[in-house]
Amino acid sequence: MTAQVQLVEPHAERVRPTLLDRLRGRDPAFAPWLFLAPFLVLFAVFGVYPIIFSLFMSLHDWDPVRGLGSARFVGLDNYWFVLSDEWFHQSLISTAWLAIASGIPQHLVAIPLACFIDSRLRRTRDLLAALYFLPYVTSTVAIAIMFTALLSRDFGMVNLLLEAVARIPLLGSLLPAGPIDWLNDPDRIRPAVSMVVFWRFVGFNTLLYLAALQGIPRELYEAARLDGASAWQRFWYVTLPMLRPVAFFAVTLSIIGGMQLFEEPFVLSGGRGGPDQAVMTTAIYLYRSAFEFSDFGAASAMSWVLVLLMAVLSALVTKWLGNRGER
Fold first, then answer.
1. Buried b or exposed e, range 220-238, using 16+ CB within 10 angstroms
2. 110: buried, middle or exposed (CB in 10 Å: 19+, 13-18, 0-12)?
3. How many angstroms separate the Cα of 140 from the Cα of each of 39, 95, 101, 263, 290?
4. What is the reported pTM?
5. In degrees, to the nearest 5, what angle opens at C-alpha 185 toward C-alphas 182 and 187?
6. CA 288, 289, 295, 299 torsion: positive or negative?
7. What are the residues facing 61 on neighbouring strands?
8. Is 102 helix (H, G, I), strand (E, B) or coil?
9. Short-list 50, 89, 93, 94, CA closest to 296
10. Digit-coded pLDDT (tens) for 112-123
11. H helices then E strands: how many in the chain?
12. What average pLDDT score do residues 94-103 get?
C-alpha cells in the first residue's frame, strides 16, 4: 500500500519593497506620496519656512547687511513698537477705509446683478460670467497702471469725460470747475483706489452669487409664487436666506483681501502711500518697513498682528452670520 504524500507549497514570504522600489512607484502605499512630493517640497520651502522664519524674525532685531548671525533676541519689543507706532495706526485706518469703501459696494452690487443675470439673461449667462471674471484674472499691476493713465489730471480719460459732462447746463453746476487731481489729492485718491478695487472684484463676487443662485431649487420660488409672494418678497425670504453660506464665504474673502490690499494703492500712489499717507495700507507700510527702512523685525511683527486682526474679524463675521442663520 503506497502512502500518498500531498505536497503543499510554502507560503511565499512578503518581500518589503526597497527604497529604490518606492522611488520607482512600485509600492502602492508609497506611490501617492511620490506624486505629492513636488507640492510638499515647494510648500515647505515657500510656505512653511517663510512662516516659521517670519515668526523667528518678529522676536529678533536683525541687520540684513551683517547676516543672519547678527540677529539679536528682543522678545516682544517689536510687537510693542508696532502697537505704539502712529504710522501703523494710520495704515490701519487707511486699510479699513479702503476695505469698507470697496468691499461693501461689491456685495450690494454683485447680489442684485447676479439675480438679474440669472432671471433675465440666461441665454448669455455664461458669456457674461466670463466677461465679469476677466478683471479678476487680469494682472493687478496692469490694471493699476491702466487706471493711473485713466485718472491722470491733465490727460486722463476720466477727467475728459467729466469735462464733457460739465458742458451740459443742468449737470455742469454739480461738477468741479477744473480737472480733478485724483492721485495727488488726499481727499480724492482714496475714492479712486476704492473704485479700482471695486471694479476688479465685483465680477468675482457676481460669479460666486450666480453659481449659488443656480443651486437654489426652483420649487421654492414656485411655492412662494403660489402663496402670492411678490418678486421682492421672493428675493428677501427665499433668495437671500439661501445665499447666506456663499455670502459668508464671499464676505470673509473680502475681509482678508481688504486687509491685504497692496498692489492697487502701491502703484496708484507711486509706492509712497499717496499724499498725507492717505492710501498707505498696512501691507504697504509692512513692505516699506522691511525693504526701505530695513526693519525686518518690526515688519515681521506687523505681519503677525495683521494675521491676528484678520482672524478676529473673520470670527466676528462667522458669529454674526451664524446668529442670523439660527434666527
1. ebeebeeeebeeeebbeeb
2. buried
3. 26, 18, 19, 6, 22
4. 0.83
5. 95
6. negative
7. 72
8. helix
9. 50
10. 999 999 888 888
11. 16, 2
12. 94
Instruction: Evaluate whether 104 touches 91 at the Cβ level (below 8 Å).
Output: no
Burial group, residue 259, by CB count within 10 angstroms (0-12, 13-18, 19+): buried
The string of DSSP codes covering 287-314 is HHHHHTS--HHHHHHHHHHHHHHHHHHH
Give the type of residue at 92: L
- Give the start-to-end residue ranges of the domains of the chain: 38-75, 85-153+181-326
> Does 181 have pLDDT greater than 70?
yes
pLDDT of residue 26: 58
CATH number of 85-153+181-326: 1.10.3720.10
Residues 259, 264, 269, 274: is their CA dihedral positive or negative? negative
The 10s digit of each residue's pLDDT in 24-50 is 555 566 667 777 888 999 999 999 999
Q: What local confidence, expressed as pLDDT, does residue 4 receive?
A: 55
Predicted pLDDT at 1: 46
